[in-house]
Amino acid sequence: MSDNISKLVATDESRDLALHLSPNEPAARPAWRQMDYLPVGLFGSVMGLTDLSVAWRSVGAPGWVAGSIGAVAVTAFAVLTIGYAVKLGTAPGAVWAEFRRPVAGNLFGTFFISLLVLPIIIAPVSLKLSQVMWIGGAAGMLIFAWLMVSRWMGNRQQVADATPAWIVPVVGLLNVPLALPSLGLPMMDGVAVLGLAVGLFFAVPLFTVIFSRLVFEPPMPPALQPTLVILAAPFAVGFSAYVATTGQVDLFARALYVLMLFILAVLAGRLRHLGRSCPFRVSWWAVSFPLSASAVAGLRFALAEPGAVTDAIALMLLGVATAVIAGLLLRTLLGVVQGELRTLSS
Predict the structure, then answer these.
(1) Is 259 within 8 Å of 290 (Cβ atoms)?
(2) In the chain, what are the domain boundaries?
(3) Which residues of 147-165 are buried (b: 16+ CB within 10 A; e: fewer)?
(4) Residues 175, 339: Cα–Cα separation, whole Å
(5) Which of 1, 35, 235, 335 is a good FRET partner for 190, with 20 to 30 A between their CA atoms?
(6) What gap in Å lies between CA 342 and CA 36, rounded to an integer?
(7) CA separation, residue 127 to residues 152, 176, 183 (Å)
(8) 3-class SS of residue 218
(9) Own/partner pairs for 159-163, CB < 8 Å, 24+ apart?
(10) How many CA atoms lie within 13 A of 138 on its CB side?
(11) 3 to each of 15, 38, 161, how far by Cα in Å?
């Protein structure tokens, strides 16, 4: 079984390489043709940076701190959107192949999640733009989630493909209610409940399937190991979405919060040596959103139930998320400057 999994991974990597540089295309290409390798999952960096900005604003830090992080998030979204639009226009086959892959296809949801969370930090500057972005993100996320669930139910899936990336469409729906309190959109309570209900419902069986794959199947390839942190996202985002929808921290919200802490504690032990066992790739950005979403959840819980323990946990989560995302940003920028982004995207 282990040999078969390795062969499948190697086959996927070879297919990706063939897509990036086909035999009929010269090795040296113009700069505008260099976006075919850009992974859609890199929009996860926008999600992580946005939630980190929200977290720093929640903690009462000087406005320039959250504003600076938010500006980086908006800039990253604009650059990635332009880059992926170039990829779509110049290498549509690569986009289609990426969408059809059982793991990478789920990461198209990161674009729609970005549209759902960015309005939280853009609303104070431009309410109308935030409303348009949220409506587009909500509509796109609902359609995308429907499409992915239909794919899972309509075709036989392989256990080896059940990675934490499968949670992304579910997490996307859980993000639907988050920005609504600051947008002033009428008659959207039903949409918020829809996102919360479907997101939480599908989080349970998907988490079970992924956990079963981790326990009974060979370990995931090193490049996918950072995605394990995504397992904490349904509980972190679910807590924030539930509180945003109901307006209270009740027993169910507390249950989501402590589940988030438990999963993070388990993953901290699993991933403590990740830096030495897994070379840096842009897939590492998969850890940014779950960590920043956990920091936001911790701060909201501490605000609802203040105390030495809850405050300490919230500040610890914020510190870890800030340090990790700062490191990822610096390493990614270094890769861009040194021309390594193609290699780091493989």
Answers:
(1) no
(2) 37-344
(3) ebeeebeeeeeeebbbbbb
(4) 34
(5) 235
(6) 9
(7) 37, 17, 7
(8) coil
(9) 159/212, 159/213, 159/217, 160/5, 160/8, 160/213, 160/217, 160/218, 161/102, 161/103, 162/209, 162/210, 162/212, 162/213, 163/103, 163/210, 163/213, 163/220, 163/224, 163/227
(10) 22
(11) 18, 29, 15
Amino acid identity for residue 206 in this structure? L
Express each pLDDT in 306-321 by its tens digit. 999 999 999 999 999 9
DSSP 262-303: HHHHHHHHHHTTHHHHS---GGGGGGHHHHHHHHHHHHHHHH
pTM of the model: 0.87
Distance CA 55, CA 229 (A): 18
Answer whether residue 10 shows pLDDT above 50. Answer: no
**29 band by pLDDT with thresholds 50, 70 and 90:** low
Q: Average model confidence (pLDDT) for the chain? A: 86
Distance CA 47, CA 76 (A): 10
CA distances from 285 to 49, 64, 110, 217, 344 (A): 10, 24, 11, 24, 11
Question: How many whole angstroms separate alpha carbon 324 and alpha carbon 302?
Answer: 22
For domain 37-344, give the CATH superfamily: Voltage-dependent anion channel (1.50.10.150)
d(CA 117, CA 174): 11
Residue-by-residue DSSP string for 31-83 = GGGTTTT--GGGGHHHHHHHHHHHHHHHTT--HHHHHHHHHHHHHHHHHHHHH
**What is the spatial distance between Cα 42 and Cα 152, in angstroms, rounded to a whole number?**
23
Q: Which two tokens stand for residue 299?
A: 């701060």
pLDDT at 332 over 50: yes
The structure tokens listed for 336 are 């861009």
> What pLDDT is stored for residue 273 in this prediction?
64
Tens of pLDDT along 71-126?
999 999 999 999 999 999 988 999 999 999 888 899 999 999 999 999 999 999 99
